[in-house]
Specification:
single chain, alpha/beta, 6-stranded parallel β-sheet, 12 strands
């Protein structure tokens, strides 16, 4: 009788063990998938209070819809949009959702490394875009910011005919993209012996701060010929400061990102140029790469740098007229290029 009872208990234990094993395997297979079995990609961005991120987010959503996958997008509160600590908390919440991939536009090159490692230690692939981090990721997709800065410097040098006084507005410290842009700009501008950078100051990528910073600089340097900012929000702030002293359009102003507001300012003659950092395409490609990783497929590269271009008073009308059609072509191009369907 005892032998029979032991045999029954052992059988029950084995059955339970097999059921548990089966349940674990099923959970692993369904990792990150919603109730319909769709792939889930979680995306963390600093803000949507910046036109660049609005376009980036739109490209990401449109690509996810095109691929038939789910996407969850989160941003930091506007009071702490650029805080690494705040983004860490947001990413930890995304990790708890156990998505197939986490896609991040980092607030800092070094400040969120710990939570990136945490995700990857839980076998969640991480893709970063816009800014690189200094820890291991599965893929990085950025614009070639140094090349973009050089384009800006070359255009500025030619627009000034090789001579003049220039002011530079610097972006948020701790993000390698701004450093690359600024270094590229100065390198290209350095080819013109008659051009002098008379002031450079941090304006933290914000329009309102750039107004105040530019006003202060103009008081000490009323005879400047040009202002270049390493993002468009600061360039637009410079335009406001120039408008207040009736110098709008009389000083060459350039930016970086080609946001809708900046493109309109170029069209209106308030700005002269901006580097197009292709946010829509970057969002499309970020989701395309994430989709491949979610399926365990090979990706074309784990370090993608996209060539940038200029939007200026010379080509702004063509840029605006073709933008919607170009966005459609980007989705088709990336789908074919990455073999997604």
């Amino acid at each position: 009788m005892k032998k029979k009872l032991v045999a029954v208990m052992l059988c029950m234990m084995m059955t339970a063990g097999l059921a548990g094993c089966s349940s674990g395997e099923e959970a692993k297979e369904n990792k990150g998938q919603d109730k319909d079995g769709k792939i889930l990609i979680a995306q963390s961005m600093p803000t949507l209070n910046n036109p660049w991120y609005v376009e980036f987010a739109e490209g990401s959503k449109n690509m996810a819809e095109h691929l038939g996958i789910e996407i969850v997008q989160v941003t930091n509160p506007e009071t702490n949009a650029w805080s690494p600590e705040t983004q860490i908390s947001k990413i930890e919440n995304l990790i708890a959702k156990n998505p197939d991939v986490i896609e991040i536009d980092p607030t800092s090159t070094d400040g969120i490394n710990g939570v990136v490692d945490e995700a990857r230690n839980k076998d969640i692939p991480v893709v970063v875009s816009g800014t690189k981090v200094s820890t291991e990721v599965d893929a990085a997709i950025i614009g070639d910011n140094s090349q973009g800065g050089q384009l800006a410097g070359e255009f500025m040098g030619k627009a000034l005919d090789g001579k003049g006084k220039v002011v530079v507005l610097l972006g948020t410290p701790g993000r390698d993209v701004f450093q690359a842009r600024e270094d590229g700009f100065k390198e290209a501008l350095g080819e013109y012996e008659g051009i002098e950078i008379v002031a450079e100051q941090i304006a933290n990528s914000e329009r309102a701060e750039a107004v105040s910073v530019t006003e202060t600089i103009l008081q000490a340097n009323p005879d400047i010929d040009a202002i270049w900012a390493s993002n468009d929000e600061m360039a637009l702030g410079a335009v406001e400061a120039l408008r207040s002293i009736n110098k709008e359009g009389k000083v060459i102003v350039g930016g970086f990102d080609a946001t809708p507001d900046a493109v309109t300012a170029i069209q209106n003659g308030e700005m002269h140029f901006s580097v197009n950092q292709i946010p829509y395409e970057m969002g499309v490609r970020a989701i395309g790469i994430s989709y491949l990783l979610a399926q365990g497929k090979e990706i074309p590269s784990d370090d993608i740098a996209l060539d940038l271009s200029l939007v200026s008073y010379e080509n702004v009308e063509d840029y605006l007229n073709n933008q919607e059609e170009n966005n459609k072509k980007v989705i088709e191009q990336v789908t074919e290029e990455y073999g997604l369907k």
